[in-house]
Design goal:
This protein has 393 residues and is an alpha+beta fold. It contains ten helices and 17 strands. It has two domains: 117 residues, Peptidoglycan synthesis regulatory factor (PBP3), Domain 2; 243 residues, 3-Layer(aba) Sandwich (Beta-lactamase), CATH 3.40.710.10.
């Protein structure tokens, strides 16, 4: 296994005679001509998902109650557990008395009832079920308290400096807060798990269908039905938080995230988000560089059991620019970590892909592996030594 920093530069030509404007890592501010957006909200943000670039913001770092938008972090940890094989969609979970006792939005689980992870996910994503959220949290971490600890650890990992959780549901609690910016980052991270929108895009469905206690699910995010392209993510409301929404929509290969916090009514909340989405799709477009899972490079690791390793994109990677503008040349630089400690687990970051314009970094994305990489056995190492000796004869 070679040590040292491996850097590879790829030049991507996108032919155009027009100028290019980037909302990049060193220029992460809102675009002009957007002053009239989110007039009804205390805070708001509009972000392009692939690049993480902010198109519009308003008081985006103000600490406010996120209400049930808290469940975006809850869903993120659940999707991570599923991706890592620690939780399976067809697994059945037995509901605890505590989970069944949750108030607020619920799917009316009963203590001792058994429900699949798949249906509980629907209960969280569609109906914002507090009981379903706690049932899943207890399964993943043993208790809601332990799960909340993981939520806060994940917030630190994502460098969210203005977020603190006290529960997995968003029910009113002292010292439980987040910001529009932090919610957009959580949403961006959640959307790496592309199957999440299979749940958050459902407008209506049923749980326990055909049974006496059948429950009709209706999405609390009405834009899923009434705004083309919206397929998530999470609403929120309490007396303190007022009306909140983290929404995502995709159109013409561009996905955006819009967050509104503290709106005065459902109508105001939806109007603000609709205007923000319209603004994004009317004024901006993306150029796709890589899809999630695309092979970026490869490594030969002599001390690994499988010494040929494909390095892939951990997420969709694009550039963002205003409509009518494009770029003449973009470069992507691969930076792999200097040292690797085996084993490496599926999904672990082993480097990053830097997207640059004229030498200026405009986005960063983790590079990862799609399968576990085990340390080579002594027998494997012995065979490789013999093979190298035979080649040198």
């Amino acid at each position: 296994m070679k040590k040292g920093l491996l850097v590879i530069t790829i030049v991507v030509f996108l032919m155009s005679n027009l100028s290019f404007t980037v909302y990049g890592e060193e220029n992460n501010q809102a675009a002009p001509d957007s002053e009239n957006l989110a007039e009804n909200a205390k805070s708001a943000i509009l972000m392009e998902r692939d690049t993480g670039k902010v198109i519009f913001n308003k008081n985006e770092h103000e600490q406010l109650s996120p209400a049930s938008m808290t469940k975006i972090m809850t869903l993120l940890l659940i999707m991570e557990a599923i991706d890592e094989g620690k939780l399976k969609l067809d697994e059945t979970i037995r509901v605890s008395e505590r989970a069944a006792s949750m108030g607020g939005s619920q799917i009316f689980l009963e203590a001792g009832e058994e429900m699949s992870v798949n249906d509980l996910l629907k209960g969280v994503a569609v109906a914002s079920g507090n009981d379903a959220s706690v049932a899943l949290a207890e399964r993943v971490a043993g208790s809601e308290k332990s799960f909340v600890k993981r939520m806060n650890e994940k917030a630190k990992e994502l460098n969210l400096k203005n977020t603190k959780f006290q529960n997995a549901t968003g029910l009113p609690a002292e010292d439980h807060y987040s910001t529009a910016y932090d919610m957009s980052v959580m949403a961006k991270e959640l959307l790496k798990y592309e199957t999440i929108t299979n749940y958050t895009s459902i407008y209506e469905d049923y749980l326990r269908k055909g049974e006496d206690n059948e429950f009709w699910l209706v999405n609390t995010n009405r834009l899923v039905k009434f705004y083309p392209g919206v397929d998530g993510l999470k609403t929120g409301y309490t007396n303190d938080a007022k009306y909140c929404l983290t929404a995502t929509a995709e159109k013409e290969d561009m996905r955006v995230i819009a967050v509104v916090m503290g709106a005065g009514s459902t109508k105001d909340r939806n109007a603000d988000v609709t205007q923000m989405l319209d603004y994004a799709f009317n004024h901006f477009q993306t150029n796709k560089l890589f899809e999630k899972g695309d092979k970026i490079t490869e490594l030969n690791m002599l001390k690994a059991e499988n010494n040929h390793l494909d390095v892939v994109a951990s997420e969709s990677i694009s550039t963002l620019h205003k409509k009518g503008e494009s770029m003449d040349k973009v470069t992507t630089e691969i930076k792999l970590h200097e040292d690797y400690t085996l084993p490496i687990s599926k999904g672990d970051s082993i480097g990053e892909l830097l997207v640059k314009n004229e030498g200026k970094i405009i986005s960063r994305s983790d590079l990862t592996v799609e399968e576990d990489v085990e340390k080579a056995s002594y027998l494997t190492l012995f065979k490789r030594t013999l093979q190298r000796m035979a080649k040198n004869e």
